[in-house]
Design a protein that fits this description.
single chain; 223 residues; three-stranded antiparallel β-sheet; 7 helices; 8 strands
Amino acid sequence: MSSNDIDDYYFTQRHPSEINTNARGDEYAKQVKQALNYCEANGCNPDVEAALRQEYRPFQMKMPGTLREQTYMMAVASGPEIASVLMLLGIDILDAIDDQLLSLPSPSYQNPWQGEILSITIEHDTVMYRVWGGDAAQTGKWLTPIRPSTQAEARSLLALPPNNSAIYISEVHVPAGTRIQIGVAAPNFGQPGGAVQVELIDRIPTSAFGPGEPLPRALLPRP
């Protein structure tokens, strides 16, 4: 699939009434997808849009498409943690791929990521966690969807910088529609990383960050 074909498939709009019902295979799927593009951009009767989505669904995994193939392979290559977190966030991976999850370039500063980065939009209000303390404020753009058990675990697996004492943890209520990057923390600051982390692309209200709770230094030994 050439770049022009990809643009035609993912971005061209076609009114639902213009679908050629005699078309077959890839051509028919492309016309249905273009009609969905039209509905998403301009609005359609909900019943019409639902019917289009139902019609398009069987073609999703069979569609030839560099974007879809690359994104699927990216999710697989990122390891089971990413797929698990997408499920945790209530995101249908097939729908997310079809909505063009993109691998973003590594930042020019010290790279906080290892492996691929997924750029997604949260579809439902979602609880995540922020570890903070010392010079690290209660609010900020770095979160994790999986609550660490101890300060040591948070510092190690999230590869926190030395100025984050990891004394506190806050629940963060990320509203639906928020754009995020999600991936695996790279080794940094002498820590191995390896946990799933989230970077907020959109600002969220300060009120979304809950009060800080003390994070245990270490797990208590069993009696």
